[in-house]
Amino acid sequence: TTNHILQKCYRTHGRRVARHNSVVNAIKRGLERKGCVVHVEPSLHCESGLNKPDLVAIRQNHIYVIDAQVVTDGHSLDQAHQAKVERYDKEDIRSEMRRFFRTTGDIEFHSATLNWRGIWSGQSIKRLVTKDLLTTGDSNIISVRVVTGGVTSFKYFMHCCGYSRASA
């Protein structure tokens, strides 16, 4: 199925990673345009283990933790968003963030949650736009990148498996 090819198939794993990184890089550029200092995948050693959120943005002594995910369309996008936020919103991670980045300001946890069709979690996009971490224009570009990444994965899968349009 299309869902298997785009979300689970081992043959398209590298393309999935590239799609995810494309989302992260677009968010990073947007944050930098808004005056944030952005750290990509910092390694935070906490009581709960090693944590590597995709992005940590610092603006005016305020820390914004953003982790991106492209999920299947068989689940609630808002539930996936909430689960990602809860994954990082823990006291040991907050303490390590303050120590690691030497800040005393507020810490907020966000997710950039889309499905493989480029549709955003309503809660995710609302929070990112409300906090001025992303513009609606940025979100549209990211949606296109997700869909384009999916098309690339699908084409690669079809090529790998030997499908061709040649007629007999």
Polypeptide structure, described:
By secondary structure, this protein is of the alpha+beta class. It has a single domain (2-160), classed as 3-Layer(aba) Sandwich (Trna Endonuclease, Chain: A, domain 1). It has six helices and six strands. Strand 4 (55-59) and strand 5 (62-71) form a beta hairpin. It starts with a helix and ends in an 8-residue tail after the last helix. This is Reverse transcriptase.
CATH architecture: 3-Layer(aba) Sandwich
Which class in CATH terms?
Alpha Beta
C-alpha end-to-end distance = 25 Å
**What is the count of helical runs?**
6
Keywords: Nucleotidyltransferase, RNA-directed DNA polymerase, Transferase
GO molecular function: RNA-directed DNA polymerase activity
Organism: Drosophila sucinea (Fruit fly)
Protein name: Reverse transcriptase
